[in-house]
């Protein structure tokens, strides 16, 4: 195939899975990041401060790519700052490439906060009817996803590239030091419960415990990203992307507990957020890591309590329609339970959690 790709955010959950998929299919992969984490094996590492137009210009000078993939964000104090910083990161890369974008494809990964609203206004106001569909459009609130989309659309019009926007639900995948990683967080939480004897309590809302939901395996998202970049009929469109099955957490919680050989606690009747209950987890994890000779002793590089609390604490049912991409030709599927177990097996094999 001999195609060349640039992944912005290559060391994250999505970027790592995408780099693995593209390289397996013969792509030459470049990864652009701040340089704080190692890039996946086989990638060409590019380092820049994405918030600095000058830094990005210097790094990308004279480089050409068939496709660019954005899977990056920087969490700020509020949504106004999220818009300013995250919109600029997309703009800086696209403006640095300029006319070299002509004939290329640019893909942007956002998520279901497109429909739910940002963390500042999460689930407030009029949330669209489930399952979420692309035709439902934007919410009348500030949202950095919209700012990133607008930068993408402007560059496509200016420089003649094609585009696609991809909206996964909560992503299951492997990455260290990632700010949004529920699968890894639940693996760490279950391990802590097993080793300390504490109950494995669902931290979220009754609506999430009983309601229908879905998730997105990172490898499936990688498949959709490559499909959209290489299928002319799929381009210049926005797509939801989820595994294709649905479940209820009251069932999945027992499946995860069984995997780790622990008992799933009954639903407590009210939210029990992890962030408030894991205040001493770093100390406990240090002892567990020493006992089992694990690779990572800093729990902050493995678990994102706040993000898992936000997803599992939603006060409404959340799941997604994927008919649009199905009708356009994308047929990928994953079993969400299998996706969790595959991740847990990988965490064990890499000595991130005890085997």
Characterize the overall form. globular
Oligomer, anyone?
single chain
Strand residue percentage: 5-15%
Order of strands, main sheet, comes to: 3-2-1-4-5-6-10
DSSP, total strands: 11
Q: What is the residue-mean pLDDT, rounded to a whole number? A: 95
Give the N-to-C terminal Cα separation: 38 Å
Total count of helical runs of at least 4 residues = 14
Helix content: 40-55%
Q: Provide the gyration radius in Å.
A: 20 Å
Biggest β-sheet strands, sense, barrel: 7 strands, parallel
- Stretches where pLDDT is under 50 for at least 5 consecutive residues are none
* Structural class based on helices, strands and sheet pairing: alpha/beta
What is the H/E string?
Answer: EHEEHEHEHHEEHHEEHEEHHHHHH
Task: Tell me briefly what this model is.
The protein has 355 residues and is α/β, with parallel strands linked by helices.
């Amino acid at each position: 195939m001999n195609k060349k790709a640039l992944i912005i955010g290559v060391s994250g959950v999505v970027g790592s899975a995408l780099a693995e998929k593209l390289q397996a299919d013969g792509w030459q992969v470049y990864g652009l990041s701040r340089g704080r984490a190692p890039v996946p094996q086989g990638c060409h590492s590019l380092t820049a401060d994405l918030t600095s137009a000058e830094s990005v210009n210097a790094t990308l000078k004279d480089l050409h790519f068939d496709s660019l993939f954005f899977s990056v964000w920087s969490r700020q104090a509020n949504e106004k700052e999220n818009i300013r910083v995250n919109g600029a990161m997309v703009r800086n890369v696209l403006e640095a490439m300029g006319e070299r974008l002509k004939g290329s494809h640019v893909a942007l990964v956002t998520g279901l906060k497109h429909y739910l609203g940002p963390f500042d206004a999460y689930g407030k106001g009029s949330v669209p009817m489930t399952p979420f569909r692309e035709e439902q459009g934007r919410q009348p609130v500030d949202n950095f996803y919209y700012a990133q989309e607008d930068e993408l659309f402007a560059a496509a019009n200016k420089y003649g590239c094609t585009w696609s926007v991809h909206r996964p639900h909560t992503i299951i995948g492997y990455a260290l030091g990632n700010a949004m990683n529920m699968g890894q967080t639940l693996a760490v939480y279950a391990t802590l419960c097993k080793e300390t004897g504490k109950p494995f309590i669902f931290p979220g809302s009754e609506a999430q415990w009983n309601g229908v939901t879905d998730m997105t395996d990172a490898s499936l998202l990688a498949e959709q990203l490559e499909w959209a970049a290489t299928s002319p009929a799929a381009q210049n469109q926005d797509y939801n992307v989820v595994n294709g099955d649905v479940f209820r957490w009251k069932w999945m919680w027992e499946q995860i507990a069984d995997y780790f050989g622990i008992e799933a606690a009954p639903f407590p009747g009210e939210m029990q957020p992890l962030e408030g209950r894991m205040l001493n987890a770093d100390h406990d994890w240090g002892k567990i890591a020493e006992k089992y000779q694990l690779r990572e002793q800093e729990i902050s590089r493995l678990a994102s309590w706040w993000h898992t609390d936000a997803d599992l604490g939603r006060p409404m049912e959340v799941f997604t329609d994927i008919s649009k991409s199905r009708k356009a030709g994308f047929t990928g599927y994953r079993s969400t339970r299998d996706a969790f177990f595959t991740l847990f097996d990988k965490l064990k094999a890499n000595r991130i959690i005890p085997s």
